[in-house]
Amino acid sequence: MPRIAYFGPQGTFTEQAARVLAAAEDELLPVETIGAALSAVRDGECDAACVPVENSVEGPVSATLDGLAERAPLVATAEALLPVHFSVLTREDVGTVRTVASHPHALAQVREWIERNLPEARTVVSSSTAAAAVAVQRGEYDAAVTAPVAVEHYPLRVLATEVADVADARTRFLLLRPPGRLPEPTGADRTSIVAAAANRTGALAELLAELATRGINLTRLDARPIKGNFGLYRFFIDFEGHVAETRIGDALAALRRRCNNVRFLGSHPRADGVEATIDPGAANQDFDEAFDWVAAVRAGSSA
Ligand SMILES: O=C(O)C(=O)Cc1ccccc1
């Protein structure tokens, strides 16, 4: 039975995402950290890992980005996009709430609600939203900001539901596997890479220009420090399209030439189904025809 490690414990948002991404026969295994989920795949204990990668309020999930840039390569084969609103859970015996625990991304999304509704509470960071619920059960903190499903696993009092400072907040999750067969292109795909640009004037601009001149639309750009090299950064770039397409393959080949290091992190269908924008002259057919023409010129059969 295929096994999927997810960022747990039970009752996290990531578990909800894993349920969306898993096949009926897959076994879901909660692990304590994002790093442990990635290691479970690298060590062969699990076939895939489900982890959060970006949030529309807080931005990138750095543990996931750093975990993908280092150690053995993993490739995203699918993504899920979940709306994120929170429940606030307490023990039955809690009077005034003085401590509220949760994952930093959750706390960042309910800061105003806590100020308004729990003015005496101090916030405490936990490894995940569900880990905060466990800590409340144990009596370590008074309240936890959790995913709506958490109350099914941790019998706590529901103080509030549908809590969110920003309406329509969403988190994107990835299903990661060892490199292997890629999903088929659909016309509404996302490709992800991480690249270490050379440390010289204009290097990042040149790298982005390779994508821009081929009419490739970016969907995300994040910089993360390369640890142990103060001042050096790697760039995580997501863009529309699939590596199986000529225009995307041509761009990746250019990045490979220009960068110190490029790692392919996957091509897979977008959860929102948004189709790639194609500029005039930048469709796959345009690339194919242009390459055919060059081949014909080289063969002496065209000019
Ligand atoms: O802690 C969780 O439940 C997670 O899955 C990470 C997370 C935290 C806050 C918003 C979305 C995902």
* Portion in strands: 25-35%
Find the count of extended strands (DSSP E, 2+ residues): 15
Tally of helical runs: 10
Residue stretches low in confidence (pLDDT < 50, at least 5 long) are: none
Number of domains: 3
Percent range of helical residues:
25-40%
Distance between the termini: 58 Å
Give the distinct bound molecules.
3-phenylpyruvic acid
Principal-axes geometry comes out as: elongated
Question: What's the CATH architecture name of the largest domain?
Answer: 2-Layer Sandwich
CATH topology of the largest domain: Alpha-Beta Plaits
CATH superfamily of the largest domain: ACT domain
Structural class: alpha/beta
What Rg is obtained from the alpha carbons, in whole angstroms? 22 Å
- Average pLDDT number: 96
Polypeptide structure, described:
With about 300 residues, the chain is α/β, with parallel strands linked by helices. It folds into 3 domains: about 1-85 and about 170-180, 3-Layer(aba) Sandwich (D-Maltodextrin-Binding Protein, domain 2); about 85-165, 3-Layer(aba) Sandwich (D-Maltodextrin-Binding Protein, domain 2); about 180-290, ACT domain (Alpha-Beta Plaits, 2-Layer Sandwich), CATH 3.30.70. It is about 30% helix and about 30% strand. It contains 10 helices and 15 strands. The chain has helices at about 15-20, 35-40, 60-70, 105-110, 110-115, 130-135, 150-155, 205-215, 245-260, 285-300; strands at about 5, 25-30, 50-55, 60, 75-85, 85-90, 100, 120-125, 145, 155-165, 170-175, 190-195, 220-225, 235-240, 260-270. Strands 1, 2, 3, 4, 5 and 11 form a 6-stranded mixed beta sheet that branches. A hairpin with a 3-residue loop joins strand 3 (about 50-55) and strand 4 (about 60). The chain starts with a strand and ends in a 5-residue tail after the last helix. About 40% of the residues are buried. The mean pLDDT is about 95. The structure holds 3-phenylpyruvic acid (PPY).
